[in-house]
Design a protein that fits this description.
251 residues, 10 helices, four-stranded antiparallel β-sheet, single chain, alpha+beta, five-stranded mixed β-sheet
């Protein structure tokens, strides 16, 4: 097998952040020796998340076994997921914004054996539903745990408590038609084809504001592993949380 050096389009700041977190964790649990030093383990995880490299490719590139790669990645994902702020904590940042944008992108998966629960009719593919909050500049603020792709966006937002928290904080929120009926904090465009001219203007302005959420979604999918998830659906929430923590560490 041929092995060649490659690059990851991330700053060394993220590597230092992850290395520091991982080193502290290993001190806490009393780790004495590992096949890879802490910096190399952090690099391995970043290659997996950012480039979508498989366990087999990582094992060949780092000179370790596939099972070891799995353990190393699982350890770091659990560590980062535990550091992810809850929605109530994220609201401290959200509250200072003029408004937020709510959207529910679908993360594609290759697990179709389970069938219906993961099939999103809106997107016509299998995936996981993740609710994303974006600030007025298009920056990613928070991402929810993943739910099966068949879950409606409004149902997901209510299940995660997003609607109630926004209402309690009195924060204005822009969202698409999928959130029709969410209530006072969420503003949605008018529905229908034959709208009055003022309603058309309102919907057009609404769309210009709402499209900023695409920047946050692009930020998530810039981590290539999220473009086509090939792992157990039970692990996707921790992957999303880990990506959000790493993203915030780089800003």
């Amino acid at each position: 097998m041929l092995v060649y050096p490659s690059s990851i389009d991330l700053s060394s700041r993220i590597l230092r952040f992850l290395t520091t977190r991982l080193r502290a964790r290993q001190r806490e649990i009393g780790t004495r020796w590992r096949r890879l030093p802490v910096g190399r383990q952090a690099l391995l995880v970043l290659a997996h998340l950012r480039c979508g490299d498989t366990y087999a490719r990582l094992a060949a590139g780092f000179g370790i076994g596939v099972a070891t790669v799995y353990r190393y990645i699982r350890e770091v994902l659990d560590l980062l997921a535990a550091a992810t702020p809850a929605l109530t904590e994220a609201m401290k940042t959200v509250w200072a914004k003029a408004f937020v944008i709510l959207d529910g992108p679908l993360l594609p998966i290759d697990r179709i054996a389970a069938g219906t629960p993961y099939y999103a009719g809106k997107h016509k593919r299998h995936g996981m539903n993740v609710q994303v909050l974006t600030d007025p500049s298009g920056r990613l603020l928070w991402a929810s745990p993943a739910l099966p792709g068949s879950t409606h966006d409004l149902t997901a937002a209510r299940r995660h408590g997003i609607i109630d928290v926004l209402a309690e904080a009195d924060v204005k929120c822009w969202a698409d038609k999928a959130y029709q009926g969410a209530g006072r904090p969420v503003r949605v465009p008018f529905r229908g084809r034959r709208l009055k001219r003022w309603k058309q203007r309102h919907s057009s302005t609404h769309a210009k504001i709402r499209c900023l959420s695409e920047q946050a979604i692009a930020t998530l999918k810039g981590w290539r592993l999220l473009r086509k998830l090939r792992c157990s659906t039970n692990r996707i929430t921790n992957i999303v949380k880990a990506v959000v923590v790493l993203h915030h560490a780089s800003t």
